[in-house]
Description:
30% of the residues lie in helices and 31% in strands. By secondary structure, the chain is of the alpha/beta class.
Amino acid sequence: xxxxxxxxxxxxxxxxxxxxxxxxxxxxxxxxxxxxxxxxxxxxxxxxxxxxxxxxxxxxxxxxxxxxxxxxxxxxxxxxxxxxxxxxxxxxxxxxxxxxxxxxxxxxxxxxxxxxxxxxxxxxxxxxxxxxxxxxxxxxxxxxxxxxxxxxxxxxxxxxxxxxxxxxxxxxxxxxxxxxxxxxxxxxxxxxxxxxxxxxxxxxxxxxxxxxxxxxxxxxxxxxxxxxxxxxxxxxxxxxxxxxxxxxxxxxxxxxxxxxxxxxxxxxxxxxxxxxxxxxxxx
Length: 283
């Protein structure tokens, strides 16, 4: 399968934090959700992909090309939305477009205009005075205006109201329909990942905890609840983030071992949110 992104053994060391041997692939034509708690290393990974920081070791290829050696060529086909506005705050939409269109061979003013109007963004207001949601929409419109084959989004739905979030997720689906476009997006809103992502990568404490097809990862885990007296040490070996309350226990559990559980234990499907919470508890 052709990949939009391939990361092998990525390492980046900061004082007090280390991104350690991060490896994953984003197949072409799919959406990957990138999840993890604050400080897990999601933004560091994204900045490494974009060559915004110097990595200590590892290899990153985009469209099969080294992300540093072929950076200028690659970025013609990459659209980026970060969690903070990266346009000059005193500029209005027309001035922003005038600057951006000089850098992209495939810039399409009609596409840009269509998204500005679809998002109902004001032409005569300084972008620094936009709400957080409006700033996010402006960056998304700019990212989509040059037919980027790869979208890299850091918290793209943050600050959006439910209607705008729903609209944006629909746009994600539209973008990848032709099989030529791919999306990597990090978010704390795991419900968005569950809705639109085909692949999932979970980072914990600078390391990959899970990566692969989203549905397969979610099928690996269940949440179990019940009386702690009903489970033995053999069962506990397969729990993650075991938490004993006054009136019972809860834990993430490896689904392949559910045949070991007594009938008194309640077994429920685990959400991505629950998987992340119990991973953190285990840590």
